[in-house]
């Protein structure tokens, strides 16, 4: 699971913790969620609050900007 390993390394959150979060087996600490949010933000992913059509995620950078980092 390369994606999981990359996320764990970049966020400094353990693989097991991420898996347990994804499976709904644990309630995360606020600090853990913040580490994950920052990691996604650095990768160009933004979390969208409810805007009448529900919550979600989107790319905050264009593809060419993501490639440059």
Describe the biggest sheet?
2 strands, antiparallel
Helix content: 40-55%
First CA to last CA: what distance?
22 Å
Output the CATH homologous superfamily: lambda repressor-like DNA-binding domains
* CATH architecture name: Orthogonal Bundle
- Across the major sheet, the strand order is 1-2
Can you tell me the number of structural domains?
A: 1
* Radius of gyration using CA atoms only: 13 Å
The amount of beta strand, in percent, is 5-15%
Tell me the name of the CATH class: Mainly Alpha
Strand count: 2
- Under CATH, the topology is which? 434 Repressor (Amino-terminal Domain)
Coarse shape: globular
Helical segment tally?
4
- State the secondary-structure class: mainly alpha
Order of helix and strand elements from N to C terminus: HHHEEH
Descriptive overview:
- About 55% of the residues lie in helices and about 10% in strands.
- With about 70 residues, the protein is mostly helical.
- It has a single domain (about 1-69), classed as lambda repressor-like DNA-binding domains (434 Repressor (Amino-terminal Domain), Orthogonal Bundle).
- The chain has a two-stranded antiparallel sheet with strand order 1-2.
- Strand 1 (about 45-50) and strand 2 form a beta hairpin.
- The radius of gyration is 13 Å and the shape is globular.
In short:
This protein is mainly alpha-helical. It has helices spanning 2-11, 15-22, 30-42, 63-68, and strands at 45-48, 56-59. It has one domain (2-68): lambda repressor-like DNA-binding domains (434 Repressor (Amino-terminal Domain), Orthogonal Bundle).
